[in-house]
Amino acid sequence: MKRRWMPNVFKSTSWECFQFAGYEIKITEATDCYGAYVWPSALVLCYYLENSQKENRFIDKNVIEIGSGTGLVSIVAGLLGSYVTATDLPHLLSNLQYNISRNTKMRSKYQPQVRELRWGVDLEKNFPKSAWHYDYVMAADVVYSHPYLDELLMTFDHLCQDDTIILWTMKFRLDKDNNFVEKFKCIFDVEVIYDLPTLQIKLYKAKRKVLCTDKVV
To answer: What is the bridge-based pairing of β-strands 165-171 and 201-208?
Structure first.
């Protein structure tokens, strides 16, 4: 999970180098934008993906990542054999596409796709439930001090079917973060896979709650 900064002598931008899934992954960041920086939560999730392949079997699975940022999680999922859709806001897609193409071309079984996804906006239009079935929904550090937590929860809910697994890493910063987790638990059954107090990060594995429809006669 170590990373090192290395200067790019040909451009003014810098990149960071990571080792996951047997490959060196080079990520271009923009430190003036929260969405274009590799946060520790992403490293925790990537570490889990790399070391839980027997349990989760990512090969040939349909994966969507929300709030992909620089694309590191999507890249690792792609290198592990998943068909990946990486999503984020429009102003982040160019760098996201660059990082994904740079690190997965001729390496991944399926070339990851990059799509715009605004939380809570036109979800059925752009990601219709009848056409899209995801085995995994992944997210790293998407809960922080922003006004779109309800829309984020709506997006989790829309993208998940009964057998979809959510893998979500979260760094706890404010009390409202705990409030989001409680709302999340109203819809999903949640298991804590990693609890890292020194980093204030937890990795959650979740599935939609099964509603009992049987009537007692």
So the answer is: antiparallel
Whether residue 208 contacts residue 160, with contact meaning beta carbons closer than 8 Å, is answered with yes
d(CA 194, CA 168): 11
User: What would the two tokens of residue 215 be?
Assistant: 């009537």
Write down the residue that tokens 């998407």 correspond to: 142
- 0.85 cut: is pTM over it? yes
> Using CA atoms, how far apart are residues 63 and 197, in angstroms rounded to an integer?
28
Q: Could you give the CA distance from residue 51 to residue 147 in angstroms, rounded to a whole number?
A: 34
Closest CA to 46 of 80, 14, 69, 84: 80
What tens digit of pLDDT does each residue of 138-186 get? 999 998 767 789 999 999 999 999 999 999 999 987 666 678 899 999 9
Q: Are the C-beta atoms of residues 50 and 82 closer than 8 Å to each other?
A: no
Classify 73 as helix, strand or coil. helix
Question: 177, 109, 136: which is closest to 49 by C-alpha?
Answer: 136
60: left (phi over 0), alpha (psi -120 to 50) or beta: left
- Token duo for residue 13: 């931008």
